């Protein structure tokens, strides 16, 4: 995006700026007596040992294979209680394979759109190689990798407080952009865009007030997934409290529309996804069922099952309204304080772009609206209306008629997409209206109320 791109936040707007580095950032090569810039591979050759840290607490020491870009061996556990929750195996131990898995999962996934083109542009053997240039730092937690015995501190390197170049992000958002790898410096590779997950092309930017903003491009028909995020925000505005969800806006740049949301993590917070929790509390029986997920969340966090169930009732009922087909185990989770190691609550709801049938080319027949929801296995995966029957708490849904004209909000947002054909827009709004009626009937049944006459008829 250019310096003059606009980010819109529910009626408020600010200017997204490209930040250049006034002085070189600290980087791993700065600690080496080598000529010019050096990457983590050079650091491993020179020092032989690395540290995984949680902020300034050393969690463990390990050796690294710079030719394969893989973890070699855990040399010593120092403060294992400060490790990422997903590192701990079901038997309570931390092994080489666990750390290597964590390292591989930290980089850009191989399933990302246009990933092969991005790898060619950057001349990479694999995306784990990029972690060697940014300390494996992320904007989703406070973990990083440091040379053993280095005087570098969290305050020197983290992306929450320090500026970063946007040149790598230009490529991760649009792999067809220039520059090629030859045009990127070590300062450019010192970027959080190496450690942002998900299949959609995306990048981090710094807003005018210093807020870190995740910018995500569209990957579905007519870029509808970009606009779906704003439709979900309009729904959440009606039903949830501030802080329960990430607010998305839409920005327009040279490569088209993108969705934008501010980083919802506050100081010393980390996101622990359901996938992370289940890796630690995996059971041979019942894996990926709702009871298993609920029990694992409660066991890991110490939060009450009533609280957790109420939050998941909100999440999956709103997903049913949005026809969200991509609420996988990495798309919801908990917030943990990385200093006290206490869980603070359910993470704000985020990532609702793959919804409203954006992967369906045609919406002509009633069956075109059918889909299998995620993430639970078994009967709940048969339809979203089977899945919402798992939940019994609807005290969070104000009545009556809280959903009145939400489809009107959706129509206004989706119609602002210049790529959206009018017949498709009409079909999507018809589906939304149907989902509202189904949800109201479901809530009435669950609360034991008399079924009211439908307040609208389709057709």
Describe the structure.
With 459 residues, the chain is of the alpha+beta class. The protein has 14 helices and 13 strands. It has a six-stranded antiparallel sheet with strand order 1-2-7-8-10-9. Helix 8 runs antiparallel to helix 13, helix 9 crosses helix 10 and helix 11 runs antiparallel to helix 14. The radius of gyration is 23 Å and the shape is globular. The N terminus and C terminus are likely disordered.
Helix content: 25-40%
Q: Which regions are unreliable across 5 or more consecutive residues at pLDDT < 50?
A: 1-39, 450-459
Name the overall outline. globular
Q: What order do the SSEs take from the amino end to the carboxyl end, as H and E?
A: EEHEEEHHHEHHHEEHEEEHHHEEHHH
Separate helix tally? 14
What is the straight-line distance between the termini? 41 Å
Provide a brief overview of the structure:
This protein has 14 helices and 13 strands. By secondary structure, it is an alpha+beta fold. A hairpin with a 5-residue loop joins strand 12 and strand 13 (343-346).
Key descriptive features of the protein:
459 residues; alpha+beta; 4-stranded antiparallel sheet; 14 helices; 13 strands; 17% strand
Topology:
Layout: E1 6-9, E2 12-17, H1 40-47, E3 50-54, E4 57-65, E5 70-77, H2 96-105, H3 115-122, H4 128-131, E6 143-147, H5 154-157, H6 167-173, H7 186-189, E7 202-207, E8 212-217, H8 224-239, E9 248-253, E10 256-262, E11 269-273, H9 274-280, H10 290-301, H11 305-322, E12 333-337, E13 343-346, H12 384-387, H13 406-415, H14 422-446
Antiparallel strand pairs: 1-2, 2-7, 3-4, 3-6, 4-5, 7-8, 8-10, 9-10, 11-12, 12-13
Helix pairs in contact: 8-13, 9-10, 11-14, 13-14
């Amino acid at each position: 995006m250019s310096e003059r791109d606009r980010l819109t936040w529910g009626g408020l707007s600010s200017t997204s700026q490209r930040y250049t580095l006034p002085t070189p950032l600290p980087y791993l090569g700065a600690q080496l007596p080598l000529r010019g810039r050096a990457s983590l591979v050079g650091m491993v050759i020179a020092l032989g040992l690395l540290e995984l840290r949680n902020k300034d607490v050393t969690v463990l020491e390990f050796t690294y294979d710079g030719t394969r870009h893989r973890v070699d061996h855990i040399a010593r556990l120092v403060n294992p209680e400060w490790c990422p929750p997903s590192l701990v195996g079901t038997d309570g131990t931390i092994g080489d394979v666990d750390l290597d898995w964590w390292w591989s999962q930290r980089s850009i996934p191989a399933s990302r759109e246009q990933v092969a083109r991005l790898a060619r542009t950057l001349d990479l053997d694999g995306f784990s190689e990029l972690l060697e240039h940014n300390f494996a730092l992320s904007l989703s937690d406070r973990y990083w990798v440091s040379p053993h015995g280095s005087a570098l501190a969290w305050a020197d390197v983290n992306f929450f407080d320090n500026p970063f170049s946007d040149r790598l992000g230009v490529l991760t958002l649009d792999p067809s952009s220039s520059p090629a790898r030859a045009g990127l410096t070590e300062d450019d590779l010192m970027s959080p865009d190496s450690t942002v997950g998900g299949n959609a092309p995306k990048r981090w930017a710094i807003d005018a007030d210093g807020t870190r903003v995740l910018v995500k491009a569209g990957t579905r028909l007519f870029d509808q997934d970009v606009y779906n995020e704003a439709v979900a925000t309009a729904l959440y505005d009606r039903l949830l409290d501030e802080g329960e969800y990430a607010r998305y806006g839409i920005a327009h740049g040279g490569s088209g529309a993108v969705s934008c949301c501010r980083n919802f993590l506050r100081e010393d917070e980390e996101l622990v996804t359901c996938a992370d929790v289940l890796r630690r509390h995996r059971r041979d029986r019942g894996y990926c069922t709702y009871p298993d997920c609920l029990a694992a969340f409660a066991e890991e966090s110490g939060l009450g099952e009533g609280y957790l169930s109420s939050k998941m009732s909100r999440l999956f009922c709103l997903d049913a309204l949005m026809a969200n087909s991509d609420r996988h185990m990495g798309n919801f989770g908990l917030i943990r304080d990385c200093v006290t190691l206490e869980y603070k609550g359910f993470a704000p709801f985020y990532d609702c772009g793959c919804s409203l049938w954006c992967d369906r080319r045609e919406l002509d027949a009633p069956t075109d609206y059918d889909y299998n929801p995620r993430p639970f296995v078994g009967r709940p995966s048969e339809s979203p209306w089977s899945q919402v029957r798992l939940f019994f708490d609807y005290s969070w849904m104000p009545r009556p008629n809280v959903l009145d004209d939400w489809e009107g909000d959706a129509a206004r947002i989706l119609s602002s997409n210049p790529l959206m054909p009018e017949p498709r827009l009409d079909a999507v709004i018809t589906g939304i209206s149907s989902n509202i009626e189904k949800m109201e009937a479901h809530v009435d049944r669950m609360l034991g109320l008399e079924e009211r006459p439908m307040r609208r008829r389709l057709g």
